[in-house]
Amino acid sequence: MENKRQLGSADLQITPIIFGGNVFGWTLDQVASFAILDQFIDLGFNAIDTANNYSHWVPGNQGGESETIIGNWFKARGKRDDIVLMTKVGGRFGYDSKPNTKGDYIREQVDLSLQRLQTDYIDLYQTHYDDANTPIEETLRAYEDLIQQGKVRYIGASNISAERLKESLDLAEAQNLPKYVSLQPEYNLYDREKYEKNYETLALENNLAIIPYYALASGFLSGKYLSDDDFNKSARGEGIQKRYWNERGQRIVRALSEVASAYRSSSSAVALAWLLANKSITAPIASATKESHLQSFVAAVQLRLGEEAIAKLQEASHYE
């Protein structure tokens, strides 16, 4: 795939869609995970995102399952150096635990991630959830150690307040500490307000690569939810219906369907193409469990939405 994008200020070139590894060890077992990864790479993509705690929410899992599957795939396929590998630290391993970005914890966890991933370096190591009780400098000093040791190339942030993100960037600049090169926020056609109001300007000012998660709003924007009955066909349908199936959500789905029809494409591809058309977005993160999902990734990268189509989607997803 020719149209790679630079990951902010990092010396990393990534294809415009990143595979979301939360499905490994959850909706995909190891055999199915290997098959989807093989197909993803064969289509020309080169970036995978996971976390040290995926997929702890599955009964019987402890966390680390996703990294383990990816590591086994690296060992089986020998593809490590072809992949821009992103993982995260600091998130919860259970619903009663709390985010943790203490220095010693980060130094401990990176070694566990490296073991599971069967590699000696991580391209992008991200603060999964910011722990507001830990001083920013302590977290950045830990990352500094990991970079100096060659275990990590660059660092990024995910769930962090705009205030703490700015403090982190400013402190890194003032103390010559490692600086976040990316931000992984929740952002899609439905969930626009928080990113656009709080983070977009900051990201542009600091040349942060934006790699949004939930790019398809947990599948709501995929085109498979067009009526009340459709939510009964999916295990996640009830939760998605409660969160998204309101007047605005229905308006967005209709607009996506109309634009997809006009471009002879799919709703998934259009929703991803809308993100890619945003000047502040580097590459959305999206998961796939079958090859047809991957084809919508390819279509999204190739799709060039016109001004009229973008205006229609902007209007449908307008928020106060």
UniProtKB/TrEMBL annotation:
GO cellular component: a single term: cytosol
Protein name: Aldo/keto reductase
Taxonomic lineage from the root: Bacteria, Pseudomonadati, Bacteroidota, Sphingobacteriia, Sphingobacteriales
Pfam families: Aldo_ket_red
GO molecular function: oxidoreductase activity
Keywords: Oxidoreductase
Residues of the NADP-dependent oxidoreductase domain: 16-316
